[in-house]
Design goal:
This protein is α+β, with helices and mostly antiparallel strands. The protein is built from 13 helices and 21 strands.
Length: 413
């Protein structure tokens, strides 16, 4: 079974694309989704966050939400806002955010490859989030949220994709946040074959973001395989919607931490405890770490630069050598008694897109007692963890720019 395949994508017309494209379903609150979709009947938020079309307070996991999502998707198809390509295609997707550009491939990826670890993971999934995505896919009979994947950058493949962007894109939209989303359709049979062969020669792909979507796609495939006595392996449900970028082009921002209290310690005593593992130096302004083992600390009115003792950095462990692990193992756990990042309500996480000012704001407001800024996790470190079959700590990576929902969907029928 091939690693990837072309597919007849469901996508907005050129005239409607600007109205359709929406942020990923999981980066907006319900209130934010309602506000963004106000007066925009074709926003894909009516599919990805269909609770906005039901009374406020509706449980987003209510069966009515999934039914409404399916109804809205069908309405967009019936009105011609979304149209399906008549034959299987690949799609070239370019994202531009400021001076950053990345060019990748929209394709469907083999569920079997995922199940046999040719699509490598680095994160645990939560059953409730998996269940939500299973219900969404099953109700829509479609995958509308792509999995973000990476491949080891290959000059031949990278240039093969990039050269396609020299033509005029079929869809070209600059979103409200200034990110430009451009799409080219690959219809040429020879080029489709070459792209498929190039990717099939790769030993593995790596999930960057979308562990719940890929796990849910595999569960839906298993359900449908069991229910289909004529199953052949070629059915659309045997593949999941993905966007695949070269790892060197992907942009990971810092994923910072804020804590509600100092575990009963006065600030002076807190700094003394930290100094057992870190060099602590007051800073004149916000600290944006630039190397492994370096962190910023903000207490009310004052930034500090922390540098961990190099002897405390494991050299042969791809997980424990991560900055997010060093901070947890040497400070959050032993000093603040925060050991479960998934459940402890004393800690929260702030994506780097919000800036260091957001860390200071949350501390100075009294909401939080301290904030920590971190270096972004390198893509190479993520891939090393996945290669080792290990799992990264929660909230280790924040990818920007985000993929758009509604750009291309994969129908399962």
């Amino acid at each position: 079974m091939p690693l990837i395949k072309p597919f007849p994508g469901l996508r907005p017309t050129a005239d409607s694309a600007a109205e359709v494209l929406a942020p990923p379903y999981d980066v907006l609150s319900e209130a934010e989704a309602r506000d963004r979709a106000e007066g925009r009947p074709w926003s894909f938020l009516h599919v990805s966050r269909a609770e906005i079309d039901l009374p406020p307070g509706t449980d987003p996991h209510d069966p009515a939400v999934y039914a409404k999502a399916a109804e809205n998707l069908e309405r967009m198809r019936a009105e011609g806002v979304l149209q399906q390509d008549p034959a299987p295609c690949y799609y070239i997707y370019r994202l531009v955010m400021g001076d950053h550009t990345q060019v990748g491939l929209v394709a469907v990826v083999s569920v079997a490859a995922y199940e046999h670890n040719r699509v490598r993971k680095h994160e645990f999934t939560r059953p409730d989030k998996e269940d939500d995505r299973v219900r969404q896919i099953d109700a829509l009979d479609a995958q509308t949220g792509p999995v973000l994947l990476a491949y080891h950058s290959d000059p031949g493949v990278d240039s093969l994709l990039a050269v396609q962007t020299e033509a005029e894109p079929e869809l070209d939209v600059t979103a409200d946040d200034g990110v430009r989303h451009s799409l080219w359709v690959v219809r040429d049979p020879g080029l489709i074959t070459e792209i498929g062969q190039r990717f099939d020669a790769m030993p593995a792909l790596y999930i960057a973001d979308g562990h719940h979507r890929s796990a849910a796609a595999a569960r839906v495939a298993a359900m449908r395989r069991q229910a289909n006595p004529a199953h052949t392996g070629e059915e659309p449900y045997n593949y999941f919607l993905s966007v695949i970028f070269p790892h060197a082009q992907m942009k990971i921002l810092d994923y910072n931490r804020v804590v509600r209290d100092l575990n009963g310690l006065a600030p002076e005593r807190f700094l003394e405890r930290i100094a057992q593992s870190f060099e602590v130096e007051p800073a004149e302004g916000p600290v944006r770490p630039v190397r492994t083992g370096e962190f910023g600390l903000y207490l009310p009115g004052q930034w500090y630069r922390l540098r961990i003792d190099p002897g405390l950095i494991p050299q042969d462990d791809p997980v424990r050598s991560l900055d997010v692990s060093l901070l947890s193992d040497r400070l959050l756990g032993p000093v603040l008694d925060i050991t479960d990042l998934r459940r402890d309500r004393r800690i929260d996480f702030v994506g780097g897109i919000r800036g260091l000012e957001e860390l200071a704001r949350r501390v100075d407001s009294g909401e939080m007692a301290a904030a920590f800024s971190l270096c972004p996790t390198p893509m190479e470190a993520l891939m090393a963890v996945a290669e080792a079959g290990e799992v990264m700590p929660p909230k280790s990576t924040w990818f920007e720019p985000k993929l758009a929902d509604g750009l291309v969907s994969h129908l399962l029928r």
